[in-house]
Amino acid sequence: MNSLNQMCGILFVIYLLFSYSVNAYKVHKKFEYKYSFKPPYLAQKDGSVPFWEYGGNAIASSENVRLAPSLKSQKGAIWTRNPLSFDNWEADIAFRISGRGRIGADGMAFWYTQNKGSYDGDVFGSSDRWNGLGIFFDSFDNDNKHNNPYIYAVLNDGTKLFDHHNDGTTQQLAGCLRDFRNKPFPTRAKVNYHNNILTLMFHNGMSNNEQDFELCFRAENVVLPKNGYFGLSAATGGLADDHDVIHFLTSSYADPLATASDQMLTEDQQKLQQEYLEYQRKLEQQKEEYRKEHPGEQKEPDLEDWFESDSQRELRQIFQGQNQIFEIIKELNRKLDEVVGKQERTMSLITQQTGAVGSNIPPPPPGQQIPSGGYAGDSIRRHEVDAIFNNQNQVQTAVGEIRQFILEVKQRVDTVINNQARAPTAQVQPVGYDTQSLVSEMRDGLNSLKVGMSQVASQVGQRGSCPTVSCVSVTSVLIIVAVQLLVILGYNIYRDNKESHAKKFY
Ligand SMILES: [Ca+2]
Ligand SMILES: [Ca+2]
């Protein structure tokens, strides 16, 4: 039982010490409106920015402060009117450095210096030989090492000249290579100076998510002059960007630990010790009373308060789980914002490219005219489709007509063939036997006559030349032939008659 009591007491002391430590280290952050500016009422109607002073080529509007416009050799700056009344601070600067060039110049500077700088100085628009801190957003690559845009801090004690030719690499305290030009959202920098530790958190402007800050640099043992001034400045050169600051929000840290002495800490410890002893005494007293009231029970009801029950544990686990879910959702949301930012950037690039391609269409060669409607592409238009349909319909009609015609022709051919089969019209009539035989007999007769004539001719030829008186004349020969033919014909007619008479008797 004694060991349990001791454990409870130790736990209580640990709890008190822990809560004290947390309270001691819980830094109170306070917004300092006298060292800040932000839209929508950044500048007043007369152009002045409350609690700030600007000059050179700087212009303040209700929405932003343009430190240096995108014109050649411009310089401008803005400084707080009053020195700072606190030592630990954070400055949250939202800005846009944008220009049409692939590279820009010269850049922007954040200052915390013992005295205000000038409005047309040599270091990004403000004074050289500054005493304090300068953080430079250096757009232009003076030393040609291809390492710009670059962000870096340079400390100065009021004696050194800034090494422009080397982009301050010989003097820089710390820095990081980050592109801050032409971003879809404003780029942001949080400069934090607390307990001699200087940190710069940078937001690359690819989203508008508050969680997207990343560490650019952290430097320890940085001693800055007290009660200095905040300033912002910018300059352009041969190349020029717009340098716009959208807001400058200052917070101060009221650090109780820094003001609390070691003596106070000891007093607190003594007080805690007394509280613990008092508590222990009361606990013992309560235990004694409880034992008197409940002599049989061994269990200490007060102990329940020091240990969590099942339901409490469950509740705690649920709470932790929900916290994890919340963190994951927050992370997803951040990534989604990033994607949206990138997409918007890509879309704008695509739009630009499409515009460029559209303007690069070559004109048609001479003699070739763009069809009506100004269209010169190779896709099919509505009226062309209609024309094709009409042509197709005409072809279909013609094919139908041809088919009809062929069918008619076929029908007619069929009719002709049928008629032919039924009543042939080109039949040859047979010749009678008698006439045939008669003709053949006449041919035989003519042949024998020819033979007889040739014999006579050969005999005449053998006798020599024909005597003028005793030879038979041509007329008499022809008469003989005619008589002979008549005799043959007469015989034939006689024979036919005789045969037809003979047939009648059968
Ligand atoms: Ca430079
Ligand atoms: Ca460089």
TrEMBL record:
PROSITE patterns, per database record: L_LECTIN_LIKE
Source domain of life: Eukaryota
Transmembrane residue ranges: 472-494
Localization annotation: Endoplasmic reticulum-Golgi intermediate compartment membrane
Leader sequence segment: 1-24
GO molecular function list: carbohydrate binding
Protein known as: L-type lectin-like domain-containing protein
